[in-house]
Amino acid sequence: MSHPPIPEKLFFKIGEVCDLAGVQAHVLRYWETEFPTLAPQKNRAGQRTYRRRDVEMALRIKELLYDEQYTIAGAKKKLATEIRGGSARDNSQTAPARTPGRSLSPPPSLAGRVGTTSAPPQPSAAPNDDQRAALLQIAKELREILDLLDEGEAEVVSAQAKKR
After folding, report:
1. Residue 58: per-residue pLDDT
2. Range of the domain at 38
3. Is residue 114 very low, low, confident or very high in pLDDT (cuts 50, 70, 90)?
4. Side-chain half-sphere CA neighbours of 127 within 13 A
5. Which long-range contacts (CB under 8 A, 24 or more apart) does 22-29 make?
6. 111: left (phi over 0), alpha (psi -120 to 50) or beta
7. Which whole-number Å values give the CA distances from 73 to 52, 60, 63, 77, 145, in the listed order?
8. Buried-most residue among 12, 36, 58, 99 (CB within 10 A)?
9. What are the residues facing 42 on neighbouring strands?
């Protein structure tokens, strides 16, 4: 099922996400309790502010539940598999890789100092359970860092809007 294009903007209100996803606000709020990957921030007034990745996640959850007829538990497992990059058991159903919202290459101001590599080295074997747990912890911490950066961006945008 196709959905309307997501407008190019930093933040969305719950009503806008409802319109894009074609669901009511209480459904989105319920999904937030069931899917940790759908976690909009709240502004100082307590209103939810969805970022583009939150809108994309809401659309994917709706697709899994409504179009592909997954249960909540099944959709959680499918999303976890997609976020991990797929598994050997489910290669036929894996979603295409999403491009990250932020570039992982150094900004131009640093690129000359740190240099760039053509490609990261490829691991020789699949990670063991301890390595996998460490990688998951690192990924969680990196997400937290990105969230902090996004909060800082939101504060800058808010401060600039107040100056106008």
Report:
1. 94
2. 1-85
3. low
4. 10
5. 22/62, 23/58, 23/62, 28/58
6. alpha
7. 24, 14, 14, 6, 28
8. 58
9. 48
Whether residues 3 and 77 fall in one domain: yes
Residues 79 and 7 placed together within one structural domain of the fold: yes
Q: What is the DSSP letter of 12?
A: B
pLDDT tens digits for range 130-152:
888 888 888 888 877 877 777 77
DSSP codes of every residue in 38-83: ---EE-TTS-EEB-HHHHHHHHHHHIIIIIS---HHHHHHHHHHHH
Contact 33, 132 (CB under 8 A): no
With bands split at pLDDT 50, 70 and 90, how would you rate the model's confidence at 100?
very low
